[in-house]
Design goal:
- Helix 1 packs across helix 2 and helix 8 runs antiparallel to helix 9.
- It contains nine helices and 13 strands.
- It is α/β, with parallel strands linked by helices.
- Strands 10-9-8-11-13-12 form a six-stranded mixed β-sheet, with helices on both faces.
- A hairpin with a 2-residue loop joins strand 6 and strand 7.
Length: about 325
Amino acid sequence: MPDRCIARVMRAHGANAWVEVNAEAMVLAQLKGRSIEAITNDRVVLDRQTDPPQITEILERRNSLLRQEGHREKRLAANIDLALLILSGEPSFSPETTLRVMAGLVAQQIPFLLVVNKSDLDGPTQMALKSLSRIQPMPETAPEWPWILANTKQVNGLDALHQEIELNCPAVSSSESSSIALMGESGMGKSSLLNLLVPDANAQTQAISEALSSGRHTTTSSQAYRMPQAPGKRSLRLIDTPGFQRFGISHLDREDVASVFPEWSWLQQGGSCRFQDCAHLHEPGCVVQAAIKTAVDAGQLARANALEDKRILWERLLSSANAPDRRSTR
């Protein structure tokens, strides 16, 4: 066995990290030097000549999950092949927060699947689907964001989820697992999903916490788990990320935010806004505002309300991104 090898970070905690080499048991390693900062699912160079082993290098990341409020950045995980964004109607998820996460995922070129959880609860599920419709593209503008129903109470409650994972997570190479991130606001049922997908997750978390002497709950930092797979199935890694109430996007620009509002580019196919940097807020000659007025004048109130709702959500995201309000004074 070589003294230096490539390992995968399963959980990082300060100057320490649990790492996995191939499918071997995890080992506790230390970061070499203050300039090295590891996050969950990083690929790293591990020197096993020392005791404990040392992480000497972080290999290039294909992407990273992060949220940011001003100068405070929180990197959650790296090298993600699919993000599962968990929603529910009890408690109700926030359409605005969901759009924030989606914009962050699109900016990092991370495919995502919206999972409406707790689908065994009829009333809350209908409320969740109504909220989901607010963030779906208007039918004529773009395809729907991919979504499924799921629940942990019924025998077949996760069948659709397993099928989507099988379709959307091809192995990166013959020697690597695909990596799936589990994300969601607090209370969406993410932990229940995790415990079904990885039955020994609690035991793994407890062992790691005891070794790190952290005593921290599983949802305070990201942790990767190897998902049990039937013989012949591809290997998968599931990354549980901390639940959140807010999701900062000050690291995103206006184009990133616009990626989850395809209506704006579709509307401008018939004619551009007067100003190239139009923020679709109060500027004269704005095609978005014109479309809302046209719908009102034509008595198409449902369309007008849908566009105005989109515009309000857009304004909220834009004010939080690295994209100042560009109200023209020309």
